[in-house]
């Protein structure tokens, strides 16, 4: 239910993080990949700010479902030309979040269906596997932008390869179509034993 989702806060430093045990699921990816749009579709609410121009805000934005779980909108990467390891060096809050936030349960990594895995995504995956033991789930976004059947077939083949290579859970989504988003939401809720 959309009224069960609430914006909690936007945080710029570690000490501002909510101080409780509520499980957190982060949504991360290149800037403009569709993180905020996906959060809005998933919550059925205009809860997260979306934008046409990629930019880089350094805050973490928290959205909460009842007192059960939170989604964290993470600052997009790839906008400026800094490398994955530099992202954590330059962004103390992200580094601290990964190092000492027991609330973190899973990492949803959003990837644009048109571009698939870019070098920066690959280095982020490597980095995450080094600094965190949490499960990474690939969420491919903007599926509707692949209109032509031939491209769609090619895209599916690439996705199958990615699936095989990384052995991770994969979701295909588009904010114009609810199927993928429903599956993603089910997965999220099921991990917390919620049946919606
Ligand atoms: N066609 C289409 N556009 C999308 C989709 N998801 C996001 N967008 C657009 O992509 C742009 C960036 O989205 P946003 O959610 O702000 O990306 P963020 O920077 O990752 O939070 C916006 O113009 C969105 O409307 C999608 O599934 N389909
Ligand atoms: Mg955003």
Feature tags:
single chain; Rossmann fold; 7-stranded mixed sheet; globular; binds guanosine-5'-diphosphate; binds magnesium ion
Low-confidence stretches: none
CATH class: Alpha Beta
| DSSP summary, beta strand count | 7
Structural domain tally: 1
The radius of gyration is 16 Å
Strand content: 15-25%
Helices and strands, in order, run as EEHEEHHEHEHEH
How would you describe this structure to a colleague?
It is a single chain. The chain has 196 residues and is an alpha/beta fold. It has one domain (2-190): 3-Layer(aba) Sandwich (Rossmann fold). It is 35% helix and 22% strand. It contains six helices and seven strands; from the N terminus they run ββαββααβαβαβα. It is globular and about 50 Å long. Bound molecules: guanosine-5'-diphosphate and magnesium ion.
